[in-house]
Write a structure and sequence with these properties.
Length: 316
């Protein structure tokens, strides 16, 4: 049944596919993250009016260096949304989704974040409503957005076990309902991930719809700086950088990171990576190139079932 063996069938190359016919029956589904993005765009359109972003044209024609596979980008703006952007990579060996929505600085709502990296065997997943402000020490902000979402987080924490140690600084960009997980590829997991994506996106849209537009200038500046800090972190430390460089070359990858994925990093603020993350600065003043200077930590989920943070040693 040819309809069951798509070219994206867990990225098995045609050669391998021919030699592993016996295992094909267990892999009769294909992974594509396109339906995730389609869902999000439909759902967003039912809440607000989306305008195409000027970035769309600039980054439309990216393709893998070796000509194998496809890179698709989409980008929009809306009254409450500074930038909604999506990157999908589909090659013979991987499927990637990097879907993030940045609200405008007049709103302190979280940043929607879905990062999925899939190969024939494994999946690396981050799905979260990344808090704009500190949810470890600022109880008020945590309760404002996350208190009512803890049951949703618990439901998926059971379905998607904690992915193990991660770059220590990242935990500060995550919320108590973060889904950080790794799993072996399977049709069942893929469908659960789709449900999680839909549920998280719907609740995020609710937050945006109900959010009150801030008019206080100092609060808007605080929101803006928090967004800039987030962009600076991700543009510098995104674990997908290596993959992107291999795929499209170093120059284009850097441009994609700073100009598209984390657009705003060069204009929304003037602070540098060292300003925001001074502990990264090595003795001679160079930016430390390691993933993290304080290493990886949080072997287990550092949030309890009430959404209280259990970790220690967090850099302020
Ligand atoms: C790994 N991706 C990871 C890890 C995290 C994230 C936490 C585990 C390694 C680590 O702790 O650094 C994701 N980290 C995030 C996110 C935030 C963060 C979303 O701080 C937000 C604040 N991942 C992608 C894309 C690709 C990708 C676009 O999002 C590829 C193009 C790949 N992620 C990828 C790969 C790994 C990874 C290959 C494993 C490599 C590694 O562990 O460094």
């Amino acid at each position: 049944n040819s309809c069951c063996v798509s070219t994206r069938d867990w990225s098995i190359s045609s050669k391998k596919r021919a030699t592993t016919l016996s295992s094909i029956s267990t892999r009769t589904f294909s992974v594509s993250y396109r339906k995730f993005v389609d869902f999000a765009l439909d759902e967003t359109t039912s809440h607000t009016h989306l305008f195409s972003s000027p970035l769309q044209e600039k980054y439309n024609s990216l393709e893998p260096k070796d000509g194998k596979g496809e890179i698709s980008i989409q980008s929009f703006e809306a009254a409450e949304i500074r930038l909604l952007r999506s990157l999908i990579i589909e090659t013979e060996t991987m499927q990637v989704l990097d879907f993030t929505v940045f609200p405008r600085a007049e709103y302190d709502v979280p940043i929607f974040c879905a990062n999925f990296f899939t190969t024939a065997r494994t999946n690396i997943v981050v799905l979260d409503l990344n808090p704009l402000h500190d949810v470890i020490n600022q109880r008020h902000y945590k309760e404002k957005y996350f208190k009512s979402l803890i049951p949703l987080g618990l439901k998926y924490a059971e379905l998607f076990p904690w992915g193990g140690k991660l770059t220590s600084e990242s935990i500060k960009f995550f919320s108590p309902i973060v889904i950080w997980t790794k799993f072996n590829s399977s049709a069942e997991k893929y469908e659960i991930l789709y449900s999680a994506f839909k549920d998280y996106y719907k609740v995020w849209l609710e937050l945006v719809s109900k959010a009150v537009k801030e008019t206080d200038e100092s609060q808007i500046s605080r929101n803006l700086e928090a967004q800039h800090r987030y962009l600076v972190w991700r543009a510098e430390k995104d674990p997908g950088q290596g993959v992107l460089k291999k795929l499209i070359g170093e120059t284009l990858a850097k441009d994609l990171l700073r100009g598209f994925l984390f657009n705003g990093v060069d204009v929304l603020g003037s602070k540098t990576f060292n300003d925001y993350f001074p502990h990264y600065c090595s003795k001679d003043g160079d930016l430390n190139n390691k993933g993290s200077i304080i290493g990886k930590s949080f072997e287990n989920r550092p949030w309890d079932e009430r959404g209280e943070f259990l970790g220690e040693g967090i850099i302020p």
